[in-house]
Amino acid sequence: MKVLVSDNKVHNGQRAALDGEELIRRAISERGEANIVLATGASQFEMLAELTHANDLDWHRVTVFHLDEYAGLPITHPASFRLYLWQRFMSALPLPLKERYFINAEGDLEAECARLNAIIKNHPIDVAFIGIGENGHLAFNDPPADFQTNEPYIVVKLDEACRRQQMGEGWFKKFEDVPTQAISMSIKQIMKSKHIVCTVPDERKAKAVKGAVEGPVTPMVPASILQRHEDATIYLDPPAASLLKQSMQ
Q1: Domains detected in the chain
Q2: Which of 28, 107, 131, 206 has the largest CB neighbor count within 10 A?
Q3: What is the mean pLDDT of the chain?
Q4: Cβ–Cβ contacts within 10 Å for residue 189, how many?
């Protein structure tokens, strides 16, 4: 795992997107196509905006998977991650994608997991663009996260810290509106990605970042598992990196 802290010239989201673009190009060059995973949330705003500016990238050779989605939330809800990806990614691309597989968690959650699991097993992930939650979660795998399941997509319960983060970022009007369940890509499936590009801005993530980077690998800090990935890079801004040892900055 590598840790890169941005400076005043290039922000962490921009740098993550530029490096991610190159990894996608490399996969297309080697295999004729690329499979990627996209996260959502406030931490991904800058990265996704920069990624959609890659006009020379062969997007028609790229298949996109969706990292997680709230249970029972319609696509018309402002907090819907499917809506987020349409507004901030799909509609901004210069070319249509080869394919996209978004999570529909409005109905039978187990059936939707089975559908996605059957698809993703034939699509090895080249690049996963992810973030880290305030409670250290990866996707919606809250602590204590399941490090053992082999299922690519699973149904999870959202803990209070996770739900309060979603409300605090302005996605919901009140805490009671935040769903208590979601479909999430599992930890093992995230770790199967050939490359991981993890973008983490803001001081409110500093404690989680310290645990992920400098603490032991533990389900209580799900993002700490990134220490065991052969090619994971965490892109931080100075506030997010503020609790790390000086040697890491």
Answers
A1: 2-83+91-244 (3.40.50.1360)
A2: 131
A3: 94
A4: 25
